[in-house]
Design brief:
Helix content is 41%, strand content 18%. The protein is an alpha/beta fold. Helix 6 crosses helix 11 and helix 9 packs across helix 12.
């Protein structure tokens, strides 16, 4: 198990320029990739001796965070303003506005917003850093496009008013999407990956792994259908579950596994702890990511650091930023194509070894240290 490090009462020798910094994020209880980024942001600035307050919509369950993420740094305090307008695009716009409207003056020096959209308007902040953990979808037609036209207009107006703001994106893919929708070109700063925690085992097994929230957007059923065409090995799907949407999707996957008679070969694992995840990835040979519109994918890099050969959907950050258009792994679009790639890697040991080595080397590009250095440089460059 990891541990929560509470530095609230620890004496820290720091420079005279200690700042009170507000870090804003919807919730740490979702336990996904964006929450890993948030924890690294908190750790980065606290390591430099700054005081950190977490602004959020709900109180953090730090015990669950410890179990899921391992060792974490807690903020000095939490500023909580419960959601009042739901989780729709327009609801979150209002929720963030109300949260930031209640920011005490002492936090107006630096505000770091870790979120999925430019939901902010903090006019009194001397410096605001917005880190996009995902990017907007540009719908060409239909109801979703009509629904988002006013929303995107509001966001563009807020961006025009922004002064002394630093916009960062988690991938080239996200940066391009943000530019196409908002006319804004964020600097790309790749998410932090704790490479020290993920190492390959000397004994690799025919295990295929996929990690993510139990949410329809993750397309785990694609992997299950492909694995039904693979005659060896085991498939482990590791996901976090929090709400009814997750539960309904989980049960759908269970029914599919049963219908395909794969109960002895496919396992669904819920809310896996960090140490168990590390042990599974260390032994696995293949990591599959099926989401068709993924912004980055921290779990992919964690698996690559363990020597897993990545197979990702041919779109998004995993394809463009992580495997660099098939240079460091494989990609697919159809179920049969995914099944063929899995069989290829399991059948040809030399292919596995070559791409496993490439994956380990590529993972080093996305180190936590690189992320921390860049973030602190921006925070302290005022």
């Amino acid at each position: 198990m990891g541990m929560v490090i509470d530095f609230q009462h620890t004496e820290i020798n720091c420079c005279e320029s200690r700042m009170d910094i507000l870090v804003v994020h919807p919730s740490l209880n979702d336990r996904g990739g964006s929450e890993k980024v948030l924890l690294s942001i908190i750790e980065s600035v606290k390591e430099k001796g700054h005081n950190v307050t977490l602004g959020t919509f709900e109180k953090t369950d730090w015990q669950k965070a410890k179990e899921f993420f391992g060792e974490v740094w807690k903020p000095d305090a939490e500023l909580i303003h419960p959601r009042m307008f739901g989780t729709s695009a327009y609801g979150e716009l209002l929720n963030f506005h109300l949260l930031l409207a209640k920011v005490p003056k002492k936090f107006k020096k630096v505000v770091i917003i870790s979120t999925t959209s430019p939901w902010f308007y903090c006019p009194d902040a001397e410096k605001a850093i917005v880190y996009f953990n995902c990017s907007p979808v540009k719908y060409g037609c239909g109801f979703k496009r009509a629904y988002l036209i006013p929303y995107n207009f509001i966001q563009r107006q807020l961006i025009k008013k922004a002064k002394n703001k630093f916009f960062l994106a988690n991938s080239i893919f996200s940066s391009r999407a943000i530019k196409s929708v908002y006319g804004l070109q964020p600097e790309v700063v790749y998410p932090p990956v704790n490479l020290k925690a993920f190492k390959p085992s000397s004994q690799k097994e025919n295990i295929i792994v996929s990690v993510g929230r139990y949410n329809p957007s993750k397309k785990f059923e694609t992997l299950i259908l492909a694995f039904s065409k693979v005659d060896r090995g085991r498939c482990l799907i590791i996901g976090s579950m929090r709400d009814r949407v997750s539960l309904v999707y989980f049960k759908k996957l269970e029914r599919l596994i049963s219908d395909l008679k794969l109960r002895n070969r496919v396992n669904l694992i819920v809310n896996c702890s960090s140490d168990i995840l590390q042990r599974i990835l260390a032994r696995a040979k293949i990591y599959v990511h099926c989401s068709t519109y993924e912004y980055f994918g921290i779990s992919i890099v964690e698996a690559m650091a363990c020597g897993c050969v990545p197979i990702v959907y041919r779109n998004g950050g995993p394809y463009i930023d992580i495997i660099s258009y098939n240079k460091y792994g494989f990609s697919f679009e159809k179920v049969d194509e995914l099944a063929n790639k899995i069989n290829l890697i399991l059948d040809e040991n030399e292919t596995f070894k070559r791409f496993s080595k490439k994956a380990i080397e590529r993972s080093k590009v996305f180190s936590e240290d690189a992320f921390k250095c860049k973030l602190v440089e921006i925070v302290e460059s005022w």
